[in-house]
Each structure stands twice: as C-alpha cells, then as structure tokens.
Amino acid sequence: MTRWLLALALLVPLAAAQAAGRLDRIKSTGKMTVAYAENAVPFSFKNKDEQPDGYSIDLCRRVIAGIQAQLKLAKLDVTWTAAPTPERLNLVATGKADLECGVTTHTLTREERVGFSMTVFVDGAGVAVPKDSPIVTLPGLDGKKISVVHGTTTEQRLRDVLQQRGIAAVLMPVKDRKTAFEMVDRGEAQAYAGARAVLVGQVLTTKTRTPDWRLLEADISYEPYAFALPHGDAALRLAVNRALAAEFRSGRIEDVYARWFGRFGKPQTVLRALFLLNQIPE
Fold first, then answer.
1. What is the tally of structural domains in the chain?
2. Strand partners, 78
3. pLDDT tens across 154-191, in order?
4. Reported pTM
5. 204, 221, 238: which is the final residue of a domain?
6. Which phi and psi angles does 189 have, rounded to 5°?
7. Cα-Cα-Cα-Cα dihedral of 256, 92, 225, 68, to 10°?
8. Distance in angstroms (rounded) separating the CA atoms of residues 106 and 224
C-alpha cells in the first residue's frame, strides 16, 4: 500500500506539471506562436499592411493580452503563422503553435488531435454562384462542378448532403479559398462552397470578372467556430476561456461584432444567445 501511495504522490505533481507546461513555457520565454487563416475575410486575413486582421484576430489579440496579464508578463512577443485549416490544426497538434485563431469548426473528430476554446461564433456552410447563374437550389447543382477548400468541414458535409439527396455534383477540392473563388470566376466551376460569412466577405472584398454574386437558399451545416489549443492542456484552455469570458461579460464582444459584421445588421438570435451563454462568471 505504501508503494502505491508513493507512486500516486509522484504522479500527481507530474500530471499538474504537464497540464501547466505550455503556460510555463510561455511565461519563461515571453513568447507565443499563433496560427491563423490569411484569406478568411472577415474572420481572419492578412490586411494591406501584411498584418493579421479580422473578427477572430481581434478576439485572439484580446486573449493574448489576457494571458499576458494572467502570467504577469511585462511583454509577450507573438509570432503569427499563416496556414490553411488542416495545417493550422497540425501546427497546434505537433506543438509548433500554442494557439490557433481562424475560422475553425469545433468537431468531435478534431478533438482527437487538438483541444478547443469555448465557441466564439456560429455560422453555417453555403454555396455561392454568379448572380446570373440558373442554379437557385441544391438540386440545381446536379452535374455541376463545385469548388471547395480541401480538408474543411464544408467539404465533408457538402459531400454527405449531396449523396443523401442524390445530387450528382462534382466536388473540386483545392488548397485555399482564393483558388476556390477564382475557379468559379474563370468558369472552371459553377459554384463555390464555404462558410456563409466568409463567402460574403470574399464577395465584398474581391475584385472579380463576375459582376455580382448570390448565395443559394440552402443551409448545409451548423458550424460552431472556436480556437484550437494543444490537446489535453487544461491550464492553457482555462487561461484562454478566462480571457474570452471577460470579453463576453463586459459586452466588448458587441464592439468586435459591430466592427466586422455591423453592415449586415445586429447579431441573429442564435449568435446573441451564444454571446449570453459565454458570459461565464469568474
């Protein structure tokens, strides 16, 4: 019995050290690496000054400031690494990034490799087509080519929906959103699938030969966005969620939303509910 108690006594501090390891490293080095999406307007993108910007980035910067305050650091240097969704998750999973701030859907399958913060936005996948396209519903995509970013939840869920409804569309997986958008603009695909808010952001900010665009009246999926974290790192997850909860409790999240989505009106019911539910007390 004494031997088992001794082993347990040794394991408890070891587990605690592992849980707090990432924060300890950040505190000792005064450095963090954050992965982000460089072309997911208005959530996460590289602006004209070549700096990360967007709704997710604004929240991420506030999280970083919260971590700095919690660790009582006079300075916290951040290295921003731009990458597509699968690569961002891999950077976190392999320890090359401490945090991921983009437009990343929290799924149970992804939880096998990484952890997640509380949900920061709720969206759904949609399909964009040129305004003069004869395609108006999902069945209209039968026999058509659809560009979509490879490795995203949109790709898999759209594939499932098309199969369930017997729609014989051809998915054209590509490396990034810019390429997917350009394929439709050049006529190499007839539609582009992605997160609805990101599709709107691309239409508003990208110069194209296509004079105007529209979204099909079809919701393909439910997409709860969150920040990816190292798997099993409870201490870092708590630090991130503590900083996020402060933003929601204070109402500052409304300012972040207004900056990036104000032109589309006030938050819809489900998003407003999220803002309320995230006001977790200290």
1. 2
2. 32
3. 899 999 999 999 999 999 999 988 899 899 989 999 99
4. 0.77
5. 221
6. -145, 155
7. -30
8. 6
